[in-house]
Design brief:
By secondary structure, this protein is α/β, with parallel strands linked by helices. It contains ten helices and 14 strands. The radius of gyration is 21 Å and the shape is globular. Bound molecules: pyridoxal-5'-phosphate. The site of pyridoxal-5'-phosphate has 11 residues, from helix 3.
Length: about 350
């Protein structure tokens, strides 16, 4: 039976990228060696990192003066690396849920943290950003509750941040839509949602934002180390970086960000429309502007909650994988990352409609 992978992360990758990775595990680009056994110092691997960085820059329109790093440690390590490298006195954070909260917790170990606004079920607006902050941190997509900062609300942030450096955790919506990277000093994320298998973390960093804190920064936690060594200070996650490269090639070959942005919109429109019209289900996020296109959360309407387990079984029998909601939210979550095609979302919509017809 065909499986439709709606896992929240690690998550779906394009089939051809998985196949090409499997081929490289057996024979890396005709070298007679597996990608698993080559040296990262060898002539084989430097071109992989270089092309991956170049493609990230090209696809995202990263301006001059920025570097793209591929590191270990996950987005969770960035929660501490960002303040370690950037926070001298005070930082401002927008709290939009679990991941923002974890980032805030780490920053508090380094200086004063101002939480400018907090909400898990909507994206706040109308707050002030303290102009003396060392940086302002946002989480562009709230993977767990299913909210996302719209382009309109990003524009608001750009307009009121003044000269405060902007830092973003984009783990779960990187490369899913056009973003003006020039407005940011640091963009980071775990790559296991939209780019690669688990094990690699991307950091897009403006070189001029560094060198402004007075504390000692341990070598491995210092962005400058990784910039100076082109992500090769220590052994990088070779296999996930290679798969990231294959995925970036896939995205470029299909038409890049404009193409994927249209496809992601089409998928989200399909599923939200179905949920808005449903008699049994409803989306958890009421405000359309704040709804995530990547993580679409929904629950049964009041009075129908006891159907939860039955629907879960029904959907599983039809090949739906990973649609159980996060334990903090309950209900269901369909993660519709870049590699999920329209047909997959269509199959979920059919499944929801079929279940509904059997009940009403
Ligand atoms: C998944 C996720 C993280 C955690 O990433 P790790 O690589 O597991 O540390 C952080 N932030 C957001 C927004 C996420 O979706």
């Amino acid at each position: 039976m065909k499986k439709y992978n709606f896992n929240a992360g690690p998550s779906i990758l394009p089939q051809e990228v998985i196949k090409q990775t499997a081929e490289a595990v057996l024979d890396f680009e005709g070298e007679g060696l597996s990608i698993l056994e080559i040296s990262h110092r060898a002539k084989y691997f430097q071109p992989v990192v270089d092309e991956a960085e170049a493609l990230m820059k090209e696809l995202l329109g990263v301006p001059e003066g920025y570097r793209v790093l591929f590191l270990g440690g996950g987005a969770s390590l960035q929660f501490c690396m960002v303040p370690f490298n950037m926070l001298e006195k005070k930082a401002a954070y927008l709290n939009t849920g679990v991941w923002s909260k974890k980032a805030i917790k780490e920053a508090k170990g380094f200086g004063e943290v101002v939480e400018v606004a907090a909400s898990t079920n909507s994206i706040p607006s109308g707050y002030e950003i303290p102009q003396d902050a060392d940086y302002f941190h946002i989480t562009t997509n709230n993977t767990i509750f299913g909210t996302e900062i719209s382009e309109h609300k990003l524009q608001e942030i750009y307009a009121k941040k003044g000269n405060v450096p902007l830092v973003a955790d984009m783990s779960s919506d990187i490369l899913s839509r056009p973003i003006d990277i020039s407005k940011f000093d640091i963009v980071y994320g775990g790559a296991q949602k939209n780019i690669a298998p688990a094990g690699v973390t991307f950091v897009i960093i403006k070189e001029s934002c560094l060198g402004k804190v007075s504390r000692y920064i341990p070598t491995m936690l210092n962005y400058q180390t990784h910039i100076d060594n082109g992500s090769m200070f220590n052994t990088p996650p070779v296999l996930p970086i290679y798969t990231a490269l294959l995925n970036l090639r896939w995205l470029k070959a299909h038409g890049g960000i404009e193409w994927i942005n249209r496809r992601n919109q089409e998928k989200a429109d399909l599923l939200y429309k179905c949920l808005d019209q449903s008699k049994l289900f409803m989306p958890t996020i009421a405000d359309r502007e704040d709804r995530s296109r990547m993580n679409i959360c929904f629950v049964f309407k009041p009075g129908y909650e006891e159907l939860q387990d039955e629907f879960f079984k029904f959907a599983t029998q039809r090949g739906m994988v990973g649609i159980k909601g996060h334990r903090l939210v309950g209900g269901f979550r369909a993660s519709c990352y870049n590699a999920m095609d329209v047909e997959g979302v269509q199959a979920l919509v059919e499944c929801i409609k079929e279940f509904e017809n059997s009940k009403i």
